[in-house]
Predict the 3D structure of the following.
Amino acid sequence: MEPGIKFALLLVFLVYVHRTACTHFRGGSFTYKPVNSSNHASMKVIIKFRMGWRRSYSRNTFCDQNTINSGSLIGINGYLRCRSGCSGSVGNLRFKCSDFSVQEDWTTGTNSFEYTFPVTSSRYYKVSYSGYNWIALVHTSGASWEIGMYVNLTKRSDTGRLNTSPVATMTPIVRLKYGCNHSIVIPVSDDDKDEVRCRWAKSNARECGGICGGYGLPNAYMFYRECRITYSATEYIGFYAVAAMIEDFASPTDSQPLSGIPLQFLVYVFNSNETCDERPEFTEYTRAEGSCIGIPPGGTYFDRIIVRAGGPSKRIVEVTTNSPQGFIKSPVAQYAPQEYYVNVTWTPISSEIETKLFCFTGLEDSGVTTEQRCVDLLVGVASPQFASLSPQGEVLPDTSQWTIAFDKQFVRPIRSSHIRIHRSDGTVVFSVDVAITAGVLYPVGSLGRTIQFTTSQTFTEKESYYLTMDHGVAKGVTYCGAESPAITDPYTMRIKIKDITPPVLTFIMPHLVLEVTFKLLGQQTKMLQLSAQCKLLLCSLVNHAIGRGLEAI
């Protein structure tokens, strides 16, 4: 073979290897907040970011639980750069790994740094990170990425403070069954309580690199106020990229955003033998979507995520997470027939009050996943805690008024949450959804600390019962509203029903009514009217009574 031909083939091979090996980007997001939002002259912000990479790409993108525990910096040595209102590099984008997936081959993590923007007349800036390549996509191979953020450091007219951007997150890969209609909810939050909306990134604003328009997720529709994407997966099998911008507005009627942050991730459309409705799901014991979980200063968050497989022959092989740095996640283990779980534990390093998004998804061995579920972790704020139940101990069978007290101010939840009463064998005899039942009385004003409710049934004498509460029966009043923890054990709120029925004596002696004076051994003498049918002699009656612990008078 001629040397020139050999060289050309070698060059083609090297280019091919480069384009194949460098398909390592898995999306990411940026967010910012002022170091001091009340100092209008300050130009210093904290920029936080999350980056996702192919886990097997190199040792710099590999992550396991040891990597998470060590807190070492990994990732591609890239830089966030100024594009408008400033110039040069803003900060390095190496990060501490927080999550990884063996099944889907990705690593993701977070980090933050401070940056002082130069003073300009507009105090409005754009920063972005760009490079090559995304994984090979259905509509393009070796697509570039550009992921940018808009920073606004003007004083807000409504709050008198500097703006803090919204926050959004998503697992690096969202799996969708081919041939089915899907809905993807983008989890967002905003510490300023602003209106948050989502839109597609724009190519003419350099917001999406090589995945803009038809090169991303064509024919998908964005419900911008709901931050929800609907998509009919009927085109091709393979990977698609999503580039969205998340913006905050001072009010629902405003049309000019205060700031804008990016969120980019992959969608994988795959063939499945299951119907569109068949999929694993979280059990009722797993935290609900949108829960606000308080973590007091110095406290540790512990939770259990339980996933029910889509059928008896299926099993859950992984629970993927998007979590703050430092989370500890146990291996998947079986919880019950067809149910699997992982335990998660996290101790925040700082007690500074802030909200962290935590998202998780269950992955079945069939390749089908649950929906992504996200909760807010409210660091530095304690949730309302159960204090007492009244009445307690031994209660009368016709007890109907109940009071549950908590240790701090709270309000009624807006999401379904139940109080239940169980018999000792676990059978539920009473259940009420406190969110929608007006007869459940909540405090009015800031001083009340109790919930009052009424039951109508008569309880069985000498039987034991216990009360349970779902997460969030009491909702805190600050930030996202930290929810009271669930109480599910049969001991914390246990009651015993008194025996109030008097003893009954039955005699087999017809047509005779007796007035008998007797005393129960060890108890006071009582006068009872006894009706009896008599066929026996009185002496036999006396002997019969004495034989059963009665003394005739």
Q: What stands out?
A: Confidence is low (pLDDT under 50) at residues 5-21, 518-553. The first strand starts at residue 25 and ends at 34. Residues 50 and 110 are 4 Å apart (CA to CA). DSSP finds three helices and 39 strands in the chain.
